[in-house]
Amino acid sequence: MAHAKDVLSDQLLANANHPSWYLPFSDSVERLSEEHAFWTPNEESNSIAEIV
Questions:
Q1: Taxonomically, which superkingdom (predicted)?
Q2: Domain assignment of residue 34, given as a range
């Protein structure tokens, strides 16, 4: 039986690097500029950089 730590580690790596029904995180931010990463539509919202 797989150890929970190994399963979680595999899932985190897959989320960051492997395509699924959504883009991997690495693909999503590949061409994201620093300016866009810190942009917010208003003061109540968080930027991508603040969330990540």
A1: Bacteria
A2: 4-51
